[in-house]
Amino acid sequence: MKGQKPLPKQRDKKSKGKTILLSFFCFLFCILFTSCEMPAPLNQRLLIRGIGIDWQDGEYLATLQADEVSENSQAMVVVYTSKGNSVLEALRNVTKQEGKIPQYSHDLTVVFGEGAAQQGLNKMIDFFLRNTEIPSASVIIVCQGNAQDILSAKKEEQIIPADTLGDAVKLGTYNGQTAASDVASLVNHLAGEGESAYLPYMKLVEDVPMTCGTVLLDENGIQKDILDDRATRGLLLLTGQLQNGYISVYVNEDTKASLEITGGNTEIKVDEQNGNPVFTIEYSCKLNMTALEGDFKESYGKEYYQIICDAAEAELRKNAQTALNQCIFENKLDVLQMGRWMHKQQPSLWNSWKENWKESMDLAEYVLDIETNMQRVGKENTPSIE
Question: Coil, helix or strand for 64?
Fold first, then answer.
């Protein structure tokens, strides 16, 4: 019995050897025949914050703004540029220059230069839609001039991070100043039946990027017109996005009221009259007075506040009418999605109009009904109106 004891040990050695050999072959197979990859060091990666696309001399110019990590793990914002015959080729040429692996940030900002927008964004958006690494919620901006200049802009000798630009657009939407959009929204609008799209517009003001309106795009993504800040507020109102914001109105020649908009709500009703669609856009909101400049009075009455509300309603109606005029009557672009509302509420009417909606949308009637209600007037030496 004692002479049989070494036998299990010999079998253990053989099993152990087989296990090591099998593990080696599995590792070799993983490297050679599967998609297993060793993680790349940080200094071999480019964390992409922003992508800029310009159209120059018949070629695409791609600008990548990225966080580059050095060998000592220090990060800095850098900008790379390269050209190509397509968006994908231009972007790949950037990474070929640096030999680093691009990784796209979850809060990626995409900027198209005005020249690219005038060529038609539907030719360029496919890359951003198909690339699974690019978030569909990435903010998209059109800028005056070149996207390269926006993504290379500096403040206090430091390149302004692209996600800061995206945050400015999002905050502008909350404040009722900017009509934000992202990859998913742009694609949906361009693909919608009879619809057009819009994107926030940005330009350099004293070398600092600032939002300054909204670009109107046709069904091919070609830039057709630009709404200023006030018309942009009208677009937000018409599309149900003016929930909060700020507005200033003159009560008379000497007195200006600065007001905060809260609780904004838009409802659209579609009716038919003599075979023509009638769109009634109802908007209501609350107003809080933040400042009264000019002819200061020691006491106020409810009648005075009603005058301020009337002035605010007139300004909002003017903003909305300007947006209607530019979008529908001048450019025949349904960025307001009125056709979708007709399809939803009056499907039979839409079926008779959809074939010629683009050419005939200016024949419909659009009615604006604006109502405001003063809620708070701040501290004063008279009782609150609440």
Answer: strand
